[in-house]
Predict the structure.
Amino acid sequence: MRLSVLLRRMLAAITIQPYAKKGLTPHGLLPFPWEKKKPEHTKVVPAVSKEDALKRFEEVLGKAGND
C-alpha cells in the first residue's frame, strides 16, 4: 500500500517538476502522516546532584545486597 502511494507521489513530482518555479521534492509536494517527525520530549528533567545520585545508588545497592 505505502509503496504504491510513494511511487505515485514520485511520479507526480517528476511530472510537475518542469512547471514548478522552485525546486520540488516528493515530500514537499505531499507529505504523508507517517513521515512526520515525532516531537522530542519537551519535559525538562531537573538535574540530579551528585549527593542525590550517590544516595539513590546506595539504596539500590542495599536492596540488591539483601537478596
About this structure: Residues 2-65 form one domain.
